Amino acid sequence: MNMENYQSEEIKYIITEDELLSQLRHLGIREGMTLEVHCAFSKLGPVIGGPTALNNALIRAVGEDGNIVMANQDYNNTEPLFWENPPIDFRLMKKVRENSLGFDVRSSALHLMGILVDEMRSRKDTSRSYHPNCAFIAYGKDAKYLMSNQPLSFPLGMKSPLGKMYAMDNVYTLLIGCDYDNCTSWHLAQYLSGCYGIIMQGGCVKKDGENQWKKYLDYDIDSHDFCSIGKLLEKNEMIKTGKLQDAVCKLFKMRETVDFACDFLRSKYE
After folding, report:
1. Are 214 and 205 a contacting pair, CB within 8 Å?
2. Residue 3 has pLDDT above 70, yes or no
3. d(Cα 60, Cα 19) in Å, to the nearest integer?
4. 25 touches 90 (CB < 8 A)
5. CA distance 224 to 269
6. Which uninterrupted H or E stretch holds 39?
7. I want to staple 136 with a disulfide (CB 3.0 to 4.6 A). Which of 1, 92, 161, 191 is the partner?
8. Residues 20-43: pLDDT tens digits?
């Protein structure tokens, strides 16, 4: 049971896995979908079974022919030159690079991605892509394919899990209790727009038992435009909204919203 934020008062309501499944169905999630999920789990309110129950409901909702995909970024394992909130003193950057823990696809924990992602990662049939700070996890029929061969440089492009999902049919993004600035798939729109400069990023990987700092190329992107894009999509009736208990949810097609976001970015920055 998720007891966060409910310890000081009596629980007056609570939701089950079957009820979550019913609400997911009402939102429009169907068997065979590939679903990119982002979730602020505490926004749901009390859940019997906690994040395990929600992940079970998501898996049941998409069925044996569907997939659940979640972003697995680790902002602690990035080039410290670009750290914000807070930034780090320039004199400490070399220390960070030399002492970071290498990404290990089997054992590296998640940072700041939420308990739903961590619970899904712990399942034995979950696949994980290999990247020090832009990895993904997936559960379902196409999980191994989606997670294979993510490039080190430009890790969110057409050769990434995002690009593979973009090329598939019946792929949707689901935001549970969080806003559009959490939508990882729209980073693909930034890649495709051609509006962003290239930077030298970095991250630590584990190779032959040793931690190795790797430099790689990426676009200088962020999520600052995503809420504006989401509001325009709502005006164009391209977003379906609903609720899972207390959490406001947004469901939308990945490919068409990536294309919309790409056009928006080009019109703004070109």
Report:
1. yes
2. no
3. 12
4. no
5. 13
6. strand 34-39
7. 161
8. 999 999 999 999 999 999 999 999
- Degrees (nearest 5) of the Cα angle 143, 148, 150? 125
Task: Report pLDDT for 114.
Answer: 84
Q: What is the spatial distance between Cα 128 and Cα 126, in angstroms, rounded to a whole number?
A: 7
Are the C-beta atoms of residues 199 and 218 closer than 8 Å to each other?
yes
Cβ-contact 152, 88 below 8 angstroms = no
Tell me the per-residue pLDDT of 171-213, one tens digit each, with 9 for 90 and over: 999 999 999 999 999 999 999 999 999 999 999 999 888 999 9
- Exposed, middle or buried by CB within 10 Å (0-12, 13-18, 19+), for 104? middle
Q: How many angstroms separate the Cα of 166 from the Cα of each of 35, 42, 171, 186?
A: 12, 29, 7, 11
Within 10 Å of residue 72's Cβ, how many Cβ atoms?
A: 27
69 touches 137 (CB < 8 A): yes
Q: Which two tokens mark 4?
A: 């966060």
Secondary structure (3-state) at 251: strand
Q: Are 24 and 63 in contact (CB under 8 A)?
A: no
The sheet that has 240-244: what strands, in order across it?
127-128, 134-140, 67-73, 34-39, 171-176, 247-253, 240-244
User: Within a 10 A sphere around the Cβ of 169, how many other Cβ atoms?
Assistant: 9
Among candidate residues 21, 22, 17, 24, the one with its CA nearest the CA of residue 240? 24
- Residue 139's nearest CA partner among 124, 153, 152, 154 is 124
Tokens, residue 161: 């899990």
134-140 and 127-128 strand pairing: antiparallel
25: amino acid identity, one letter: R
3-class DSSP assignment, residue 203 = strand
| Token duo for residue 172 | 């949707």
What share of the chain in percent tops pLDDT 90?
88
